[in-house]
Amino acid sequence: FFGEGQGVMTGKDGEVATWTGQGIGRAAKSGATSYRGCVYYQTSSEKWLKLNSTAAMFEYEVDADGNTRCQLFEWK
């Protein structure tokens, strides 16, 4: 699979950032799905300004029961 997405995230103190991501995935015969890709952020929130220059690699797993697990890693 190839996918693209966009979204918004908010922090507890009112921070806001938008994100855009792309990734590839594959399905297993068990019904599980595995995705890998990269996410880029944009924000004007002072507290999160570092996100504007950060690429985050992700691993996203969905098991056969629909349970998910996601990990983000800063690409340095």
Describe the structure.
This protein has no helices and five strands. The two termini are 26 Å apart. It has strands at residues 2-10, 16-27, 33-43, 55-62, 68-75. The chain is mainly β.
Q: Which key features would you list for this structure?
A:
single chain, 76 residues, mainly beta, 5-stranded antiparallel β-sheet, 63% strand, elongated
Gyration radius, to the nearest Å? Answer: 14 Å
Counted by DSSP, the helix tally is: 0
Strand content: over 45%
Terminal Cα span: 26 Å
Residue runs with pLDDT of under 50 for 5 or more positions: none
What strand line-up does the widest sheet have?
1-2-3-4-5
Mean pLDDT: 95
User: How would a textbook summarize the main sheet?
Assistant: 5 strands, antiparallel
Q: Percentage of helical residues?
A: under 10%
Task: Please provide the count of β strands.
Answer: 5
Instruction: Supply the helix-strand structural class.
Output: mainly beta
Shape: elongated
Instruction: Return the string of H and E elements.
Output: EEEEE
